[in-house]
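request received
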Amino acid sequence: MPTRGQRRANERRRAKEASRNVPVSSIKLPDGPKISFNYNDPDLLVRTGPLIKATWGVPSAHAEALRAAGKPVPAPVAGLMLIDTGASRTAIAQAVVQELSLKQVGMGYTLGAGGKHTNPIVAALLTVTIEVRPGVTGSIQSDQPVMAIPELDKAISPGELVLENYPTRVIGLLGRDFLRHVTFVYDGQLARFEIAVHHKSMPDRTDEITADIT
Amino acid sequence: MTLEEEQRAFEAQLDSLRAGHEGQFVLFKDGAPADFFEGHAAAFRAGIERFGLEAAFLVAEVTKIRPTPISVSWQLGIMFAD
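response:
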Protein backbone atom coordinates (compact mmCIF):
# COMPACT_ATOMS: atom_id res chain seq x y z
CA MET A 1 0.00 0.00 0.00
CA PRO A 2 1.51 3.36 -0.97
CA THR A 3 2.34 5.81 1.80
CA ARG A 4 0.68 9.20 1.97
CA GLY A 5 3.80 10.78 0.48
CA GLN A 6 3.95 8.29 -2.41
CA ARG A 7 0.23 8.82 -3.09
CA ARG A 8 0.72 12.57 -3.25
CA ALA A 9 3.72 12.21 -5.55
CA ASN A 10 1.66 10.01 -7.90
CA GLU A 11 -1.17 12.55 -7.91
CA ARG A 12 1.24 15.38 -8.72
CA ARG A 13 2.71 13.38 -11.61
CA ARG A 14 -0.75 12.54 -13.03
CA ALA A 15 -1.87 16.19 -12.75
CA LYS A 16 1.28 17.37 -14.52
CA GLU A 17 0.77 14.91 -17.37
CA ALA A 18 -2.91 15.79 -17.70
CA SER A 19 -2.29 19.53 -17.74
CA ARG A 20 0.12 19.11 -20.65
CA ASN A 21 -2.40 17.38 -22.85
CA VAL A 22 -5.89 18.53 -21.91
CA PRO A 23 -7.13 22.12 -22.10
CA VAL A 24 -9.43 23.00 -19.18
CA SER A 25 -12.25 23.83 -21.62
CA SER A 26 -12.39 20.21 -22.79
CA ILE A 27 -12.55 18.58 -19.37
CA LYS A 28 -15.61 16.35 -19.04
CA LEU A 29 -17.07 15.21 -15.78
CA PRO A 30 -15.97 11.62 -15.24
CA ASP A 31 -18.44 8.82 -14.58
CA GLY A 32 -19.22 8.03 -10.98
CA PRO A 33 -20.81 9.71 -7.98
CA LYS A 34 -21.97 13.27 -8.47
CA ILE A 35 -23.35 16.19 -6.56
CA SER A 36 -25.48 18.65 -8.48
CA PHE A 37 -27.90 21.42 -7.78
CA ASN A 38 -30.03 23.50 -10.13
CA TYR A 39 -30.98 26.86 -8.62
CA ASN A 40 -33.21 27.93 -11.55
CA ASP A 41 -32.20 31.54 -10.89
CA PRO A 42 -28.70 32.88 -11.56
CA ASP A 43 -29.17 35.66 -9.00
CA LEU A 44 -30.09 33.15 -6.31
CA LEU A 45 -26.86 31.27 -6.96
CA VAL A 46 -24.99 34.58 -6.71
CA ARG A 47 -26.61 35.33 -3.36
CA THR A 48 -26.31 31.90 -1.74
CA GLY A 49 -23.22 30.46 -3.36
CA PRO A 50 -22.92 26.79 -4.22
CA LEU A 51 -24.30 24.79 -1.30
CA ILE A 52 -24.44 21.05 -0.82
CA LYS A 53 -26.21 18.85 1.71
CA ALA A 54 -24.00 17.39 4.39
CA THR A 55 -23.91 16.37 8.03
CA TRP A 56 -21.29 16.63 10.74
CA GLY A 57 -21.04 13.88 13.32
CA VAL A 58 -18.64 12.44 15.86
CA PRO A 59 -15.89 10.22 14.39
CA SER A 60 -16.33 6.46 14.80
CA ALA A 61 -13.58 6.18 17.47
CA HIS A 62 -15.24 8.96 19.48
CA ALA A 63 -18.69 7.33 19.15
CA GLU A 64 -17.33 3.95 20.26
CA ALA A 65 -15.73 5.53 23.34
CA LEU A 66 -18.99 7.24 24.26
CA ARG A 67 -20.94 3.98 23.90
CA ALA A 68 -18.37 2.11 25.98
CA ALA A 69 -18.78 4.70 28.73
CA GLY A 70 -22.57 4.37 28.58
CA LYS A 71 -22.97 7.91 27.25
CA PRO A 72 -25.27 8.94 24.41
CA VAL A 73 -23.79 9.60 20.98
CA PRO A 74 -24.98 12.97 19.66
CA ALA A 75 -27.11 12.75 16.53
CA PRO A 76 -25.43 14.15 13.39
CA VAL A 77 -26.11 17.80 12.59
CA ALA A 78 -27.53 18.29 9.11
CA GLY A 79 -27.26 21.43 7.04
CA LEU A 80 -25.54 22.96 4.07
CA MET A 81 -21.85 23.31 3.31
CA LEU A 82 -20.74 26.25 1.18
CA ILE A 83 -18.20 25.35 -1.50
CA ASP A 84 -15.54 28.00 -1.04
CA THR A 85 -12.62 28.17 -3.46
CA GLY A 86 -11.22 30.97 -1.29
CA ALA A 87 -10.80 28.58 1.63
CA SER A 88 -7.75 26.38 1.84
CA ARG A 89 -9.31 24.01 4.35
CA THR A 90 -12.71 22.65 5.18
CA ALA A 91 -14.14 24.36 8.23
CA ILE A 92 -16.96 23.69 10.66
CA ALA A 93 -19.21 26.16 12.43
CA GLN A 94 -18.20 26.46 16.09
CA ALA A 95 -21.86 26.08 17.13
CA VAL A 96 -21.88 22.60 15.56
CA VAL A 97 -18.69 21.70 17.44
CA GLN A 98 -20.48 22.54 20.68
CA GLU A 99 -23.67 20.67 19.75
CA LEU A 100 -21.68 17.52 19.01
CA SER A 101 -19.10 18.03 21.80
CA LEU A 102 -16.36 17.28 19.28
CA LYS A 103 -12.89 16.69 20.66
CA GLN A 104 -10.25 19.34 20.07
CA VAL A 105 -6.96 17.83 18.93
CA GLY A 106 -4.91 20.92 18.16
CA MET A 107 -4.83 24.50 17.00
CA GLY A 108 -4.58 25.94 13.52
CA TYR A 109 -3.11 29.27 12.56
CA THR A 110 -4.87 31.60 10.18
CA LEU A 111 -4.11 34.98 8.72
CA GLY A 112 -6.77 37.65 8.98
CA ALA A 113 -7.19 41.39 9.08
CA GLY A 114 -5.70 41.57 12.57
CA GLY A 115 -2.72 39.33 11.83
CA LYS A 116 -2.22 35.75 12.95
CA HIS A 117 -5.10 34.06 14.77
CA THR A 118 -5.54 30.64 16.32
CA ASN A 119 -8.61 28.48 15.82
CA PRO A 120 -9.43 25.10 17.35
CA ILE A 121 -8.86 21.99 15.25
CA VAL A 122 -11.39 19.26 16.04
CA ALA A 123 -11.83 15.68 14.89
CA ALA A 124 -15.13 15.35 13.02
CA LEU A 125 -16.97 13.04 10.67
CA LEU A 126 -18.22 14.69 7.50
CA THR A 127 -20.94 12.97 5.48
CA VAL A 128 -21.72 14.41 2.07
CA THR A 129 -24.89 13.50 0.19
CA ILE A 130 -24.20 12.42 -3.38
CA GLU A 131 -26.00 10.98 -6.37
CA VAL A 132 -24.62 7.51 -6.91
CA ARG A 133 -26.42 7.24 -10.23
CA PRO A 134 -29.52 8.96 -11.62
CA GLY A 135 -32.31 8.70 -9.06
CA VAL A 136 -30.21 7.00 -6.39
CA THR A 137 -28.76 9.03 -3.55
CA GLY A 138 -26.04 7.95 -1.20
CA SER A 139 -23.23 9.35 0.85
CA ILE A 140 -19.50 9.43 1.36
CA GLN A 141 -17.89 9.92 4.73
CA SER A 142 -14.54 11.18 5.86
CA ASP A 143 -12.99 11.33 9.32
CA GLN A 144 -10.95 14.49 9.31
CA PRO A 145 -9.41 17.31 11.29
CA VAL A 146 -11.29 20.55 10.69
CA MET A 147 -10.95 24.11 11.86
CA ALA A 148 -13.80 25.59 13.88
CA ILE A 149 -15.02 29.07 12.96
CA PRO A 150 -16.99 31.09 15.50
CA GLU A 151 -20.27 32.66 14.37
CA LEU A 152 -20.14 31.00 10.94
CA ASP A 153 -23.72 29.78 11.03
CA LYS A 154 -24.96 33.16 12.23
CA ALA A 155 -22.88 35.31 9.93
CA ILE A 156 -23.84 33.73 6.64
CA SER A 157 -27.26 32.83 5.44
CA PRO A 158 -28.51 31.01 2.39
CA GLY A 159 -31.19 33.70 2.10
CA GLU A 160 -34.39 32.68 0.47
CA LEU A 161 -33.22 29.23 -0.50
CA VAL A 162 -35.93 26.78 0.57
CA LEU A 163 -35.40 23.02 0.63
CA GLU A 164 -38.24 20.67 1.34
CA ASN A 165 -37.80 18.93 4.70
CA TYR A 166 -34.17 19.94 4.96
CA PRO A 167 -32.50 22.58 7.16
CA THR A 168 -30.99 25.50 5.26
CA ARG A 169 -28.53 26.29 8.04
CA VAL A 170 -24.92 26.69 6.87
CA ILE A 171 -22.79 24.32 8.95
CA GLY A 172 -19.40 24.81 7.34
CA LEU A 173 -17.19 25.59 4.38
CA LEU A 174 -15.87 23.04 1.91
CA GLY A 175 -12.43 24.27 1.03
CA ARG A 176 -9.76 23.38 -1.47
CA ASP A 177 -8.76 20.31 0.55
CA PHE A 178 -12.16 18.87 -0.52
CA LEU A 179 -11.99 20.31 -4.03
CA ARG A 180 -8.66 18.51 -4.46
CA HIS A 181 -10.68 15.30 -4.81
CA VAL A 182 -13.41 16.44 -7.20
CA THR A 183 -14.08 17.93 -10.63
CA PHE A 184 -16.24 21.00 -10.09
CA VAL A 185 -18.20 22.69 -12.89
CA TYR A 186 -19.90 25.98 -11.98
CA ASP A 187 -22.28 27.39 -14.58
CA GLY A 188 -23.42 30.80 -13.40
CA GLN A 189 -25.37 31.52 -16.59
CA LEU A 190 -27.54 28.44 -16.17
CA ALA A 191 -27.62 28.72 -12.36
CA ARG A 192 -26.29 25.28 -11.63
CA PHE A 193 -23.20 23.44 -10.60
CA GLU A 194 -22.10 19.84 -10.76
CA ILE A 195 -19.38 17.96 -8.94
CA ALA A 196 -17.90 14.58 -9.79
CA VAL A 197 -16.36 13.02 -6.70
CA HIS A 198 -13.10 11.08 -7.00
CA HIS A 199 -13.86 9.53 -3.64
CA LYS A 200 -11.10 6.94 -3.71
CA SER A 201 -8.47 9.66 -3.47
CA MET A 202 -10.00 11.09 -0.30
CA PRO A 203 -7.88 10.52 2.79
CA ASP A 204 -9.40 8.77 5.78
CA ARG A 205 -12.66 8.03 4.07
CA THR A 206 -14.47 5.68 6.38
CA ASP A 207 -16.23 3.56 3.81
CA GLU A 208 -17.11 3.13 0.20
CA ILE A 209 -20.13 4.88 -1.17
CA THR A 210 -23.36 3.96 0.54
CA ALA A 211 -26.49 4.08 -1.59
CA ASP A 212 -29.84 4.93 -0.03
CA ILE A 213 -32.33 3.71 -2.58
CA THR A 214 -35.61 5.52 -2.06
CA MET B 1 -0.42 19.01 30.28
CA THR B 2 -3.07 21.11 28.60
CA LEU B 3 -3.65 20.95 24.86
CA GLU B 4 -2.05 24.40 24.52
CA GLU B 5 1.09 23.08 26.25
CA GLU B 6 1.10 20.00 24.02
CA GLN B 7 0.84 22.28 20.98
CA ARG B 8 3.76 24.43 22.14
CA ALA B 9 5.88 21.35 22.80
CA PHE B 10 5.01 19.89 19.38
CA GLU B 11 5.94 23.12 17.62
CA ALA B 12 9.22 23.32 19.52
CA GLN B 13 10.13 19.82 18.28
CA LEU B 14 8.68 20.15 14.80
CA ASP B 15 11.95 20.58 12.93
CA SER B 16 13.44 17.42 14.39
CA LEU B 17 10.19 15.48 13.86
CA ARG B 18 10.12 16.53 10.20
CA ALA B 19 13.53 15.01 9.64
CA GLY B 20 12.15 11.49 10.02
CA HIS B 21 8.38 11.74 9.79
CA GLU B 22 7.47 14.44 7.25
CA GLY B 23 3.88 13.99 6.05
CA GLN B 24 2.91 11.54 8.78
CA PHE B 25 0.48 12.29 11.60
CA VAL B 26 1.84 12.37 15.11
CA LEU B 27 -0.03 11.45 18.27
CA PHE B 28 1.55 13.74 20.83
CA LYS B 29 1.11 13.40 24.59
CA ASP B 30 2.96 14.68 27.67
CA GLY B 31 5.26 16.80 25.57
CA ALA B 32 6.56 13.97 23.38
CA PRO B 33 5.47 11.97 20.34
CA ALA B 34 3.62 8.81 21.37
CA ASP B 35 3.41 7.35 17.86
CA PHE B 36 3.21 8.18 14.15
CA PHE B 37 0.49 7.24 11.65
CA GLU B 38 -0.23 7.55 7.94
CA GLY B 39 -3.60 9.23 8.49
CA HIS B 40 -5.37 11.51 10.94
CA ALA B 41 -8.22 9.08 11.70
CA ALA B 42 -5.82 6.32 12.79
CA ALA B 43 -3.89 8.72 15.01
CA PHE B 44 -7.09 10.03 16.58
CA ARG B 45 -8.38 6.51 17.22
CA ALA B 46 -5.10 5.55 18.89
CA GLY B 47 -5.29 8.66 21.07
CA ILE B 48 -8.79 7.76 22.25
CA GLU B 49 -7.87 4.13 22.87
CA ARG B 50 -4.60 4.84 24.70
CA PHE B 51 -5.46 7.96 26.68
CA GLY B 52 -9.27 8.12 26.81
CA LEU B 53 -11.79 10.60 25.57
CA GLU B 54 -11.26 13.09 28.37
CA ALA B 55 -7.46 13.32 28.10
CA ALA B 56 -5.74 16.16 26.28
CA PHE B 57 -3.68 14.84 23.40
CA LEU B 58 -2.60 16.41 20.16
CA VAL B 59 -2.92 14.98 16.66
CA ALA B 60 -1.15 16.92 13.92
CA GLU B 61 0.46 16.44 10.55
CA VAL B 62 4.23 16.61 10.73
CA THR B 63 4.79 19.36 8.22
CA LYS B 64 5.79 23.00 8.06
CA ILE B 65 3.18 25.24 9.69
CA ARG B 66 1.87 27.78 7.20
CA PRO B 67 -0.74 30.22 8.48
CA THR B 68 -3.35 30.78 5.75
CA PRO B 69 -6.71 32.55 5.57
CA ILE B 70 -9.59 30.23 6.53
CA SER B 71 -11.44 31.80 3.63
CA VAL B 72 -10.42 34.93 1.82
CA SER B 73 -13.99 36.11 1.33
CA TRP B 74 -15.01 35.23 4.90
CA GLN B 75 -12.13 37.11 6.44
CA LEU B 76 -12.64 40.14 4.20
CA GLY B 77 -16.31 40.21 5.14
CA ILE B 78 -17.53 39.95 1.55
CA MET B 79 -18.82 36.37 1.51
CA PHE B 80 -22.46 37.46 1.47
CA ALA B 81 -22.09 41.17 0.78
CA ASP B 82 -25.04 43.00 -0.76
